Amino acid sequence: MSTTEKIAKFITKLFPVWVVLFAAIAFLSPAPFKPFATYIPYLLGLIMLGMGLTMTLDDFKLVFTRPKDVLYGVLLRYIIMPSVAFLVAKLLGLPPSLAAGLILVGACPSGTASNVMTFIAKGDTALSVTISSVNTILAPIFTPFLFLFLAGTLIPINAEALLIDILKIVLFPIILGIVVRTFASEFVNRVMVIIPLISVLSIIAIIAIVVALSAAKLVTVAVIAFIAVALHNALGLGLGYGASRTMGMSHKKAKAVSFEIGMENSGLAVALAIAHLDPIAAIPGVIFSVWHNFTGSLLAGYWGSKDEETVATLKK
User: Fold this and answer.
1) Number of H helices, E strands in the chain
2) For every one of its 316 residues, what pLDDT tens digit does the chain have, with 9 covering 90 and above?
3) What's the DSSP call for residue 171?
4) Cα dihedral sign, 66-143-181-187
5) Which of 32, 85, 158, 190 has its CA 20 to 30 A from that of 7?
6) Alpha-carbon torsion (188, 189, 191, 196), positive or negative
7) What span, in angstroms and rounded, lies between the C-alpha atoms of 194 and 192?
8) 50 and 195 in contact (C-beta within 8 Å)?
9) Residue 110 forms beta bridges with which residues?
10) Which domains does the chain have, with CATH numbers?
11) In whole angstroms, what is the distance from residue 206 CA to residue 217 CA?
12) How high is the pLDDT of residue 56?
C-alpha cells in the first residue's frame, strides 16, 4: 500500500471526527471560513465528479434485469423521505427556514455512503449502487418538484433556479465523470485512490463553511434541528426496510433499500440551501452529514454481524 493510499484511508476512515473538529473550529472562529461561501457549489460539483468517476454503465444494468427491485427502491426513496421530513417538521413545529431545510434533505437523492453501508451489512450491493445511480440521475426532476410541493407554502421557492443548479452541480459533473471513466479508464484507475479523499475533504470544507455562516443562530436551533434530523433518519431507515419487506423483497434487498432511503446526499441539500434559502436552512443537511454516517455504520455493523452468526449457526 502506497503512502498516498495510507493517508487517504486514514483521513476517510476518521471522516466523522474531522467533521466535528472543523465544525467546532468554524463555530468558534467563523470569520476565516465565511469568504469561501461562494465555493460551496464548486466543492459539491467536485464531489459529484468523483462519484461519476466511480460509476460505469454497468451500474445501470439492473434497471433492465431487475426493473421491479429498482423501481421499488426509487419510488420508496422519493415518497418516504420527503413525506417524513414534512411530517417531522410539522410535529416539532420547526421554524420555516429549518423546516424547509429538512424537507430539502428529504427531497435530495440518496448518498454514496449508502453503497458502503449496504456492503458492510451484507446487503444487495449491486441493487444499492443501481438505486443510488438512478436516484441521482432523476434528482433534477424529482428534487425541485417535491421541494416546491412540500415546502412551497413555507418559504418562497424558485423551482426553475433550483433545477438549473441541480443540473449544473449534480447531473453534468456525474455525466462528465462517467464519460471520462469510459474513455480514459486507465487514468481513472491510477487516480482512484485519491477520489474518496477529495470527496471527504470537500464535504468537510462545505460543512465548516456552513457552520461559520450560521454560527450566530446555530445555538438557538441546534437542539431542535438535531432531534428533527435524528427522527428523519431513523424513520427513513426503518420505513425503508419495512416497506420493502412488505413489497416482497428479501432481507438482503431490503437492507439495501433501507440505506438508500435513510442516507441522503446531504451535501447537495447544504449547497442548494445556501444558494436559494438561507444559512439556517442548511443546518439539517450539515447535521445529517454526520448523523447518517454514525447510525448507518451502527446498523450496517449490526446486520453484518447478525447475518454472519446466522450463517455460522446454519453450518453447524
Assistant:
1) 16, 0
2) 577 777 777 777 777 788 888 888 998 999 999 899 888 888 888 888 888 887 777 778 888 888 999 999 999 999 999 999 999 999 999 999 999 999 999 999 987 788 888 888 888 988 998 998 899 889 888 999 999 999 988 888 888 888 888 888 888 988 898 888 888 888 888 888 788 788 888 888 888 888 888 887 777 888 899 999 999 999 999 999 999 999 999 999 999 999 999 998 888 888 888 888 888 898 899 888 888 888 888 898 889 888 666 655 545 5
3) I
4) negative
5) 32
6) positive
7) 6
8) yes
9) 264
10) 3-310 (1.20.1530.20)
11) 18
12) 77
Pull the grid cell for residue 226. Answer: 438535531
The rounded distance, in Å, linking the Cα atoms of 187 and 228 is: 43
Give every CB contact of residue 199 below 8 A, 6+ residues apart in sequence: 46, 47, 50, 51, 112
Calpha distance 184→196 (Å, rounded) = 19
DSSP 245: H
Cell triple for residue 276?
436559494
Strand pairing partners for 264?
110
Task: Find, among 203, 173, 177, the residue nearest to 265 by Cα.
Answer: 203
Beta strands in 17-120 (DSSP E): none
Torsional class of 8: left (φ above 0), alpha (ψ -120 to 50), beta (otherwise): alpha
Question: Taking Cα atoms as reference points, which of 59, 88, 68 lies closest to residue 257?
Answer: 68
Distance CA 186, CA 192 (A): 10
Give phi and psi for 50, each to the nearest 5: -60, -40
In the chain, where does DSSP find H-type helix?
3-13, 15-28, 40-53, 62-65, 67-92, 96-107, 113-120, 125-151, 159-166, 172-183, 185-191, 195-213, 215-246, 251-262, 266-276, 283-315
End-to-end CA distance of the chain: 37
